[in-house]
Design brief:
The complex is a heterodimer of chains A (391) and B (179). By secondary structure, chain A is of the alpha+beta class. In chain A, helix 1 packs antiparallel against helix 2 and helix 5 runs parallel beside helix 8. In chain A, strands 1, 4, 5, 6, 8 and 9 form a 6-stranded antiparallel sheet that branches. A 4-stranded mixed sheet of chain A has the order 10-11-12-13, with helices on both faces. Among the domains of chain A are: 106 residues, no CATH class; 153 residues, Diaminopimelate Epimerase, Chain A, domain 1, CATH 3.10.310. Chain B is mostly helical and 179 residues long. Chain B is elongated, with a radius of gyration of 33 Å. In chain B, helix 1 packs antiparallel against helix 3. Chain B is 78% helix and 0% strand. Chain B has 5 helices and no strands. Classes of the chains: A alpha+beta (391), B mainly alpha (179). The interface between A and B is medium-sized, with 31 and 37 residues.
Chain lengths: 391, 179
């Protein structure tokens, strides 16, 4: 539909070719078509991207922390520069210059999916204490560079000790294409109004917090949050999973259903357990996940429901032991059969922009001095000269 | 009309023809893609339905066997307990000795399997319905309608029960007594 906007520049081209035949050059005809075409393509891409763009959380864990001391290097290089004399002639010269560079001290954490994160000095010290190791590492800077090292700096490295309780979870946002959320597919969910959201106290996704992401919403238990984060961290790379626990106090099962609709079924790597409580008693459970392991979803919901009394630590421990081994992430490429059309607003905006751009180019093309015959003459003359120069 | 204008109009006509050709090829390919996908999904659905029944049957057999064997063991145990030493009061034995417990876990797992497999089957059927919806959109919406509007609608098979069909045909559901 959006491509129909192409008729605007095409009509404009016919118009100027009839009314202003001699005032438009070939290049201007091409621009009159190509620029609006680019505008339409951008409009389509932007609208599609904004509709399908979604954010998920990737989990990993720190495997190595490193402190690098400040170090300095010096080297020389040949620089080219130009000068202009009084008569306007320019000359190119070369000169040898000495460069200095200071690499400031830095603290970093490396995770198991090859990501690296800048951390504070105090956090580095905490990690070293937690993992109870810190070894000196000679960076051998002089051997790895032809530059002169004016101040040597080495590193101190701490390695993860493989203890579950000593896990440093890393949770990072990542974008992916989600065609479901904007489609009219039977798999899509109804829109949830603000009133419903307030009535059932539905949750929003927590903001990104790389080292402090809390996977439990609606209930505060530091120990349980930590256990679930650790399980997420250890299964992030292996099982591509992100588990969350949502606790609804004094809400009916409808809250779980609306939460699923509000989050459009969750992200592709998520396994979200919703638990409805009355006091400390588990009244209902619901799983939100795109995984096709339906039996796993039903079993987990049943087992948690059977616990009767809510104990966050017990629940997350069960989740960590039971879910990752049976979880298989849904491949969203399965939804590639869904077509995503630009929204009507995007189509109208693209039509308006195309019209304005076409009009502006048309006015410029008519009013400038470049005309069809002049362009042909100039182009033909240049070609003629080129052929002459080749003899 | 000036010669240049004529050439420009010819060029525009060529560009429009080119755009229409590219659009036509795109829509026709997409229509074929959806048609093939629906055929493949239909076959996959048969497979999943077959798997559903086999798994449920097998698990049910295991549960049955467990129940049968438990009954045999339990009956034998009780007979022996109450017949061999009839002089003592059996009520005290009941209190002192631990009886074997019948585990309902197998039945619960069977229930999970049935629910899970039915949910899986419902999902793949929904996917087929969704593919048909996409195909219908392609056939009926402008501008794709101009190119593939005359193609046949997809013929999909959705498995439901006679009860469901009856309810939808009559638009009545009277039998709602739970007890």
């Amino acid at each position: 539909m959006i491509w129909l906007a192409l008729f605007i520049p095409l009509i404009a081209i016919i118009f100027v070719s009839v009314r202003f035949t001699k005032r438009i050059s070939i290049l201007e005809y091409i621009l009159l078509f190509a620029i609006p075409l680019a505008c339409i393509a951008i409009g389509k891409y932007a609208s599609t991207y904004s509709q399908t763009h979604d954010i998920e959380y990737w989990n990993s864990f720190g495997v190595r922390a490193m402190y690098e001391e400040e170090w300095k290097e010096r080297w020389t290089e040949t620089e080219t520069y130009t000068t202009t004399d009084g008569e306007g002639n320019t000359q190119t010269h070369t000169r040898i210059v000495t460069r200095n560079k200071t690499h400031p001290e830095q603290w970093s954490l490396f995770d198991d999916i090859e990501g690296s994160y800048s951390i504070s000095k105090s956090y580095f010290e905490q990690i070293c204490t937690l993992w109870s190791n810190r070894t000196f590492k000679d960076m051998q800077r002089e051997e790895n560079t032809s530059h002169t090292i004016t101040k040597d700096g080495n590193a101190y490295v701490a390695i993860y000790d493989d203890l579950f309780d000593h896990t440093i979870p890393v949770c990072k946002q990542h974008t992916y294409e989600n065609r479901i959320q904007c489609s009219k597919s039977v798999f899509n969910f109804e829109e949830v109004s603000d009133e419903t959201k307030a009535q059932y106290k539905l949750f929003d996704y927590p903001p990104e917090d790389v080292f402090g992401f809390n996977p439990i919403l609606g209930h505060s238990n530091q120990r349980a949050s930590s256990i679930l984060s650790h399980h997420n961290a250890h299964n992030g790379r292996r099982r591509q999973i992100h588990m969350m626990l949502l606790v609804f106090q004094d809400q009916s099962l409808e809250a779980g259903l609306f939460q699923e609709s509000y989050w459009k079924g969750g992200n592709k790597n998520e396994f979200i357990l919703c638990v409805g409580l009355k006091g400390n008693e588990i009244k209902w459970t619901r799983i939100i996940s795109w995984t096709e392991q339906e039996e796993l979803k039903i079993r987990v919901a049943r087992k948690i429901k059977e616990m009767e009394k809510f104990d966050a630590v017990q629940v997350v421990s069960y989740m960590g032991e039971e879910i990752p081994s049976g979880f298989l992430r849904k491949k969203f490429a399965d939804f590639n059969y869904l077509s995503v059309e630009p929204t009507m607003t995007a189509i109208w905006i693209t039509f308006a922009i195309t019209f304005i751009v076409t009009l502006v180019i048309m006015i410029i093309a008519i009013n400038n001095e470049c005309d069809f015959e002049g362009f042909i003459e100039k182009f033909g003359k240049r070609r003629h000269n080129r052929y002459n120069s080749f003899g | 009309m000036h010669k240049i204008a004529v050439w420009v109009i010819i060029a525009v006509i060529i560009v429009v023809a080119l755009i229409l050709t590219v659009m036509g090829i795109g829509y026709k390919n997409r229509e074929v893609e959806l048609r093939n996908q629906s055929v493949a999904q239909q076959e996959a659905n048969k497979n999943i339905y077959d798997k559903t029944w086999k798994v449920v049957q097998m698990k049910a057999q295991i549960a049955d066997k467990y129940a049968g064997e438990f009954k045999e063991i339990y009956t034998g145990l009780m007979d022996a307990r109450y017949s061999a030493d009839s002089g003592n009061n059996p009520a005290f034995k009941w209190i002192q000795e631990q009886s074997p417990n019948f585990s309902t876990e197998l039945y619960k797992e069977l229930g999970d399997s049935i629910s899970g497999l039915r949910a899986e089957f419902a999902r793949v059927q929904n996917r087929l319905i969704d593919i048909k919806r996409e195909h219908e959109n392609l056939r009926m919406k402008f501008p794709s309608k101009l190119f593939v509007g005359k193609r046949e609608a997809l013929d999909i098979q959705i498995v439901t029960s006679a009860k469901t069909e009856e309810v939808f045909n009559s638009e009545r559901e009277d039998n709602v007594d739970l007890f």
